[in-house]
């Protein structure tokens, strides 16, 4: 068991602070924090000045420093939001305060074995964007909201930017000051505002912009024009732009938000936070769907774009007279071992090639060689480009619905 200081709260692999969670699904458990965490952590001591820690954040281009005591125990985190608070409230000389008086504490830390999805839920529940990772009582790394967003987008790709963007954006005028922007961000609990000149987006001001261009340079925020602080030019993406590509763009360029714009019309803004929340909603929907499949007495299954089986429920295994998922999952549904005749297999292949929803009556071959007459319903899930992403299928065993004597030893009716 990891040991942590009194100023930290450990989230372990059970999904809570020492309390066992419900059984986690495959999606939740297949990727751990240890797989995505950054082992290179920028740290500060509680006694050094806020200004010194701020300079280090600016030089290292990070959004926080983890505060550790002389024994190496995590005692707090100093974030851009903590710095923004002093600026928004007009505090004088807060840069000369010790880090201990400005840092966020107690600090939520996590074990490396926590799943990425659970880590995302922790960040959302605790309203934080940074999660120090502690192993065997020592600081082992850190994960940020950006790290988790990138990982989860791989697990559950979204489609269009319009599905995740925030339509109501926070704006300031070009005549505003850096302090005005800071106050807007603080009041709305957001990390960036768009500078609008009429209907045109001319720049974005983020917490990082204020950190690097105002606080670290010890400028007077109330006298610094926002146009001297904002990042420009604005990088617009259209509403139908891929969420996956937008996330990759933000990661590559080390930015956290993009303006959603087509022509002269600004539709909204999309940030890493927006993407993370949208991915979590999609994954939650998938989990509900998987739970329904698992509990159903009707045989159900899922295929990937190449028609390889990715999931089967217990009823499906029972119908095929197999005991293990591995006997089915990972195999192509068109595999000859699943079908009683080549004709049935060919009809399935034709349906898969058409990529259409359809209902077929086929003969399935069980693991012990028995013939089962089934109705198969297949539905394709497609992306914005009309390409098949996956398939969902349902089977109904109709063997017993035929009148007695209608089947011969080959599993065929006399009419066949």
Tell me what the structure shows:
The protein folds into three domains: 8-147, CBS-domain, CATH 3.10.580.10; 161-277, CBS-domain (Roll); 296-401, Beta-Lactamase. The chain has helices at 26-29, 50-60, 80-88, 116-126, 145-155, 178-188, 207-215, 243-253, 272-295, 314-320, 342-354, and strands at 8-11, 43-44, 64-68, 74-79, 107-110, 130-135, 138-144, 171-172, 192-197, 200-206, 236-237, 257-262, 265-271, 300-304, 309-312, 358-365, 371-382, 388-397. Mean pLDDT is 83; it is low at 14-29 and 403-416. It contains eleven helices and 18 strands. It has 416 residues and is an alpha/beta fold. Helix 4 (116-126) packs across helix 5.
Per-chain topology:
Blueprint: E1 8-11, H1 26-29, E2 43-44, H2 50-60, E3 64-68, E4 74-79, H3 80-88, E5 107-110, H4 116-126, E6 130-135, E7 138-144, H5 145-155, E8 171-172, H6 178-188, E9 192-197, E10 200-206, H7 207-215, E11 236-237, H8 243-253, E12 257-262, E13 265-271, H9 272-295, E14 300-304, E15 309-312, H10 314-320, H11 342-354, E16 358-365, E17 371-382, E18 388-397
Query: Which class best fits the helix and strand makeup?
Result: alpha/beta
CATH superfamily (homologous) name of the largest domain: CBS-domain
Quaternary structure of the protein: single chain
β-strand number: 18
Quickly give the CATH architecture of the largest domain. Roll
Number of domains: 3
Q: What does the average pLDDT come to?
A: 83
Shape, principal axes of CA atoms: elongated
Low-confidence stretches: 14-29, 403-416
